[in-house]
Automatic annotation (TrEMBL):
Organism: Crenichthys baileyi (White River springfish)
Stored Pfam families: TAFA
Lineage, broadest ranks: Eukaryota, Metazoa, Chordata, Craniata, Vertebrata
Family statement drawn from the similarity comment of this UniProt entry: Belongs to the TAFA family.
Protein name: Chemokine-like protein TAFA-5
Record gene name: TAFA5
Keywords assigned: Membrane, Signal, Transmembrane, Transmembrane helix
InterPro entries given in the database record: Chemokine-like_TAFA, TAFA-5
A single GO BP: G protein-coupled receptor signaling pathway
Length: 125
C-alpha cells in the first residue's frame, strides 16, 4: 500500500514536470530569442566605391539586465552596458582573434587590423 502511494506520487511529479516543460516551450514561441542571445536581422553591403565596401547590419538581441547589444568576435552579442556608455569599444572584443583593435580618435567606433594590414572600421550609431 505504501509502495503504491510512492509510485503514484512519483508519477504525478513526473507528469507535473512534463507539463511545466511543455508550457515553457510554448511560451518561447518561434521568433523569440533566449535571454543573452542575438540574431542578425538585416545585412546590406555596398561595394559601389572602389577598394571599399560599406556594410550595414541590424541585429536583434534579448540581453540580460546590465547588458546591451554590442559586438564580440565580429558577431552581434550582449555586452556589459558600461562598455558602451564609456565608449571603450575594444573592451567588448569586437575583432577576430588574429586582429588588433584600436579606438577611433573621437571614440565613435573602432578599427580591426588584420595581420596583412587590411583595416576594417566600424562606427556606432
Amino acid at each position: 500500500m505504501q509502495l503504491l502511494r510512492v509510485a503514484w506520487a512519483l508519477t504525478g511529479a513526473a507528469i507535473c514536470c512534463f507539463l511545466i516543460l511543455l508550457i515553457h516551450s510554448r511560451l518561447l514561441k518561434e521568433g523569440q530569442l533566449a535571454a543573452g542571445t542575438c540574431e542578425i536581422v538585416t545585412l546590406d553591403r555596398d561595394s559601389s566605391q572602389p577598394r571599399r565596401t560599406i556594410a550595414r547590419q541590424t541585429a536583434r538581441c534579448a540581453c540580460k539586465k546590465g547588458q546591451i547589444a554590442g559586438t564580440t568576435r565580429a558577431r552581434p552579442a550582449c555586452v556589459d552596458a558600461g562598455i558602451v556608455r564609456k565608449r571603450q569599444w575594444c573592451e567588448m572584443v569586437p575583432c577576430l582573434e588574429d586582429e588588433g583593435c584600436d579606438l577611433l580618435v573621437n571614440k565613435s567606433g573602432w578599427t580591426c587590423t588584420q595581420p596583412g594590414g587590411r583595416v576594417k572600421t566600424t562606427t556606432a550609431l
